[in-house]
Every structure is written in C-alpha cells, then in structure tokens.
Specification:
alpha/beta, TIM Barrel, eight-stranded parallel barrel
Length: about 300
C-alpha cells in the first residue's frame, strides 16, 4: 500500500437513502454538487476514495462510480465494503454484493474490499480469497473488528495464502479504544485506516453550544448533547492550530496522521479537499499529542456508535 496517499476521502455523506448522507449527516448531496469536489481532489493526487454498499444502499457508490468512469482506472484507488447485515439482499453471497458494487462503481476491480463488521468472522472471511484470485479485489480489509477478531480473520486468510492487509476502525481523540489494534498493525505491516477522526464534524471547530448541528440528522442527535463537554478540547485544538498555522479540523486530522494512521475524512465541500492537501506532510510533536489526548480524556464522553463496540 505504499502508493496510497496519506489521507483517504470519505463518501459516506454522498447521496440520500437508508443510512445515507441525508439521514446521518443532514446533507442532500448529489452528483452535480460533488463533481467539483472530486475533480479538485484528483488534481491534488488525493485519489483514494472510501465508500460502502450500505451508504445510502448503493447511492454513494453510484455517485462515485459516475466520476470513476471518466478517469483512468490506474489513477484512482477505490475502497468499498461488504456489510453482513444486508447480505440477505445479495443471497448471502460476498461475491454477489461485490459484483453489484463493481457495477455501481463502473470498475472491474476494487483496490481494498472490506468486511464491514465482524458479524460472523468464520462465515464471511473465507469468501474473500477466491475474489483475490479472480482479480476482482486487490487487498483485503476488516472493519470494526477487535484484536481477537482481527487475528482470527488473518489466520483464516493465511490458510488460503492471503492476509489482512488493512484495518478500518473508528479512531479519534474521543475514541482511542483501538490503540492496541493500531500497535498490532504497526508490528505486522497492516495499514490502519481511521474513520470518524473528526467525529462527523464535532471536532471540526465549526459547531459548539452557540452553533450546534442543525436538528434532523443522526449526528445532531448524538453530538449536540455533548458539545458543552468538548469546549475545552476544542479550545486547546485552536491554540495548537494557531501555533502550527492549522485550523481545528486540520489539527484533528494531523493528530491521526501523527499517530500513524491513514485517516478517512469526509469531503462535501471543495475547501475540505484543499485543507487536506496542505497537511499531507505535517505532524504534531509528542508533547502536543499528549496535551490533546489529556484534554480529550478530561471531556469524558463516549462517541462509540450503535454499530460499534469498545475495541480491546
């Protein structure tokens, strides 16, 4: 995975539908809104895109696929996911869900294909190696797996001559329960993708008690009640940002990079991309990391969501 950029761009907020951008984020973003963002990102060589079948039940993949068909395939990396909870729609077949994703994404292979959660490691993991051998997927990832589940998935794959190439877990200043998994990944040459590094905007500096998330989305319901507890942390992020010529959102993302992760950052505006482009080679000092984590601990909030668990 040496050719991947240091940051992945997330498309969860793209499109509408069940578990789509309108329900989770309060956005109603379609192709015409997102094409300029995609174009700017590709020009900046931010060309690793993360989506999933379940995001809008295909809506996110369809929008990304409408852009993919107009670029040279070798110039873009695509990451999408098999979600066990909706496997029944695809006759409980990993391959059939993958084939539907391939069609929506206008491609004949996926660079990283993920098991979205460990609903049944023993059942679903063995279905991935044939897809590697067929060329339909290039790398295998597991998402929302704890350390035991990760190790078991890797054992299963090694029996087929494959391995877990990447892990994708929720990892932010407010949720560092995957620290041991991150250490394991570093020791075993597994790339750790960190999602929700900005807690869906709660750590972006844009929202506070005077300017909360607009009502009507899942993130408003989850984060508005804890905004008062985040004020000191956001204040410290501002201070460190001013010292390093960074915004609050950039500080949150640079923290994730400095920890050795590949952060996935959702992009819904052009400035989200240009802001990311500026921080690709920026890191925080060990002291700054410690200060931020101390303030995050002091906030004493849990942002583990309904589909997740505390990682150990």
């Amino acid at each position: 995975m040496k050719n991947f950029p240091k940051i992945a761009l997330g498309a969860w907020a793209w499109g509408t539908g069940n578990v789509g951008g309108n329900q989770i984020f309060g956005h109603n973003l379609e192709k015409n809104d997102l094409q300029p963002i995609f174009d700017v990102a590709m020009k900046a060589n931010l060309n690793l895109w993360d989506t999933a079948t379940v995001y809008g039940m295909g809506a996110s993949e369809e929008i990304l696929g409408s852009f993919v068909k107009n670029v040279e395939r070798e110039k873009i990396f695509i990451s999408t996911k098999f979600t066990p909870q909706i496997a029944g729609i695809y006759e409980n077949s990993v391959e059939k869900m993958l084939d539907a994703s391939l069609q929506r994404l206008n491609t004949n292979f996926i660079d990283i294909y993920w098991i979205h959660n460990p609903m049944d490691v023993e059942k679903w993991t063995p279905m991935l190696p044939p897809l590697i051998k067929s060329g339909k997927i290039k790398k295998i990832g597991v998402s929302n797996h704890n350390l035991q589940e990760l190790k078991r998935a890797d054992e299963i794959l090694k029996n087929f001559g494959c391995r877990v190439d990447a892990v994708q877990n929720h990892f932010s200043l407010l949720n560092r329960s995957s620290e041991k998994i991150l250490d394991y990944c570093k020791e075993n040459d597994i790339k750790f993708f960190a999602y929700m590094v900005l807690e869906q905007g709660a750590l972006s500096g844009k929202y506070d008690t005077k300017n909360p998330f607009p009502e009507g989305s899942a993130r408003a319901q989850i984060y508005n009640p804890i905004l008062p507890q985040l004020e000191e942390l956001i204040g410290e992020m501002k201070k460190i940002g001013e010292k390093n010529n960074l915004s609050v959102a950039q500080v949150g993302t640079v923290w994730a990079i400095s920890k050795g992760t590949l952060p996935i950052v959702g992009v819904t505006k052009i400035h989200h991309v240009t802001d990311l482009e500026k921080i690709l080679d920026v890191k925080l000092s060990d002291d700054e990391i410690k200060i931020l984590e101390n303030f995050a601990d002091k906030a004493n909030v849990s942002t583990i969501r309904e589909w997740e668990k505390k990682m150990e």
